[in-house]
Amino acid sequence: MRTATYFFIFLNMSLALFEEPAVYPLPFLVTSVVEVLCLLVFFGRLTHFAKVTPRNVFWKDTKNICIMVAILLSLTDLAIYGVLRIYNVRSIRWSRIVRPIFLVNFAESRQIRRAFRSIRNTLPEITYVFLLFMFSLLMFSLMALKLFGERNLQTAEGLPYFRNYLEIVFDLYVLVTTANSPDVMMPAFDFSSWYALFFIAFVIVNTYIFMSLFLAVVYNNYKKHLKVM
Signal peptide location in the record (predicted)? Predict the structure, then answer.
């Protein structure tokens, strides 16, 4: 029963690869039939669980309620999407976001729920580090605006360089991952090589110090909560 449940959960979640917009598109009829089959299996598993569980215990368990709500939402969304498709009205399958609920809330997924609870308990404790990181990012963005905002610099595409505060915040946030390095600093570096010191300081503080600190706090607290549970 556990193997069958996991198989249909995996099948249900993998439908996102074949539904529009899809990596490997299949006809709507095929994906809808497979989804209905998966939902019937989930409903049957839930019904079987209800037969072997006292009624007052079954209805007090929020996991069972979540599964039933997820099944109803998926069927409702599937029916609405099918009707709109008949009338050639473009819509989106919003119920895809509830599919992981089946993975987490079935009785067989005890270890997954344990991991999720550890993550949930870890989040409040990493908030302080995250707030410090955001404060550093905002302060560096403000310094960048003051340093480069009045220089009338332009990017390689001819766009204004570091003149909008929110765009600066986003560019420096991406720089933390080094995804846009060194392109983001080249207009300033071409203007004066001394401006490279600003970006070097930013990378040292935020990428090497804050990201390492953030990872250490996440790992230690997650490990602590996982041992307790």
Answer: 1-16
User: How far, in Å, CA of 31 to CA of 78, rounded?
Assistant: 10
Residue 206 has pLDDT above 90, yes or no: yes
Average pLDDT over residues 187-208: 92
Give the highest mean pLDDT range of 29-33, 88-92, 220-224. Answer: 29-33
DSSP 113-159: HHHHHHHHHHHHHHHHHHHHHHHHHHHHHHHHHHHHTTTT-B-TTS-
Rounded Cα distance, 215 and 200, in Å? 21
Number of Cβ within a 10 Å radius of residue 150: 9
DSSP string across 76-90: HHHHHHHHHHHTT--
Task: Please state the pTM of the whole predicted model.
Answer: 0.63
Angle at which helices 110-148 and 165-176 pack, to 10 degrees? 130
135 CB neighbour count, 10 Å cutoff: 10
Q: Per-residue confidence at 201, pLDDT binned at 50, 70, 90?
A: very high
Instruction: Report helix, strand or coil for 225.
Output: helix
Cα 147 to Cα 129: distance, rounded to the nearest angstrom: 27
Beta bridge partners of 154: 160
